[in-house]
Amino acid sequence: MANTPGTPDPHTDDRWIARTAAQVRAPDALRARIETSRPPRRTRVRRHLELGGALATALAVILLAVVLVSPAGTPGAPSLSQAAALGMLTPTAAAPAPDTAHASSRLAREVEEIYFPNWESIHWRAVGQRTDRINGRLALTVYYEGRGHRIAYTIVSAPALAQPNAPVTTVRGTVERTLTIDGRTAVTWRRAGHTCLLSGQGVPGAVLRALAGWHPGA
Known about the structure:
- By secondary structure, the protein is an alpha+beta fold.
- It has 2 domains: 35-66; 76-212, MucB/RseB, C-terminal domain (Phosphorylase Kinase, domain 1, 2-Layer Sandwich).
- The protein is 29% helix and 30% strand.
- The chain has helices spanning 14-23, 28-37, 41-69, 80-85, 205-212, and strands spanning 106-111, 114-117, 125-134, 137-146, 149-156, 168-171, 174-181, 184-191, 194-200.
- The strands form 2 sheets. Strands 3-4-5-9-8-7-6 form a 7-stranded antiparallel sheet. A two-stranded antiparallel sheet has the order 1-2.
- A hairpin with a 2-residue loop joins strand 6 (168-171) and strand 7.
- Mean pLDDT is 80; it is low at 56-75.
């Protein structure tokens, strides 16, 4: 039916629609139910913080993955910092058992005949391990716990990585270099052309150097 003159057409008059919408108000009971269903402001803030933390963690994992696969130094040669980054990751497998032939001094895990030590007698117990590849190079890490700390022992397959410019110490014939990488104390040395690396958060360099130079019965 046609509208009478002077009467706004609700289908075409935008001003009439806007004016009418401004005058319409939801019933108080409905507004109360909507307001009640909304989480408290403290909950909303906490959810935003949790989401932000989750995103930051995911970003850190992505960045670490990029570090582990990106070239560094000479083509195909991983860097010492890439090897040290493995110490900040979590184990993916149970700790290796003691070696059956040398149970008191070795674990049943090695990289090209370079074995991991069994430090149980000096109160550092193996608690886990993980296997990674850095630029195609095998890197095996065993995690130890003792005296309230966790340390990571990584062996990278030959050839050995470049030596860092760091203070040199010789402990029981082992030439070691001590440095700090990403806030972790690290000690690195070579065994039969392989790179070995011990690192830990809040662990004194002297402790890591003593472990690196450890021999059965020492």
